[in-house]
Amino acid sequence: MASASAHPDDPHFVHRTGWLRAAVLGANDGIVSVASLIIGVAAAGPAPGAVLIAGVAGLVAGAMSMAAGEFISVSSQRDSEQADIRREKLALKKMPEEELAELAAIYEGRGLSPDTALLVARELSARDALTAHIRDELGLSDALAARPLQAAFASGMTFSAAAALPVLVAWVVPASAIVPAVLAVAVAALALLGAIGARAGGAPLLPAVLRVLGWGVFAMGITFAIGSLLGVSV
What is the distance between the alpha carbons of residues 121 and 102, in angstroms, rounded to a whole number? Predict the structure, then answer.
């Protein structure tokens, strides 16, 4: 008997977009922001203890900010989705024939003949009209639905894990080696992050790595330059 799926043990990459986006964003921000902070402070010339304190403070504050920001923004997205779903429920109750015609028009626009489009719309509506409209009119699905807690957890945890790398390096290396050591570790971590993100999302490897590296190195370079020129913590 043929399998119901051509790849039952290999789900589509789109099912990962919710947590993957938040995780990559959190990890990238953790590496770039905390490494840049440490490099900028170290370039300004404070004692190693001050550099380490700045890094730890950046890690804690950044993780909380990322988690809260993800929760708030994704909650706003979820609220918008729920508002549209409520509107569809009301429209289906008040004018079901108009909603049926709207669904048929969507299928006709995708290439079905008018008769077939209407038949499909009728059969799907008879089974679950609201689900059909949510999926085909609003473009929403379980895989892509907003999940605030998932996004907040993924972003906050990956930020913390990634930011811990430059903090650990700043702690163990001599004061004179903080800037080059943190820069080297951050670059390596960004390249690894780009590769992992590309692999998890099914994207080409090289463009993803170069994109993450380019912006990360640019941010750290600017922060180092400001710290060196002004002699202040940035």
Answer: 9
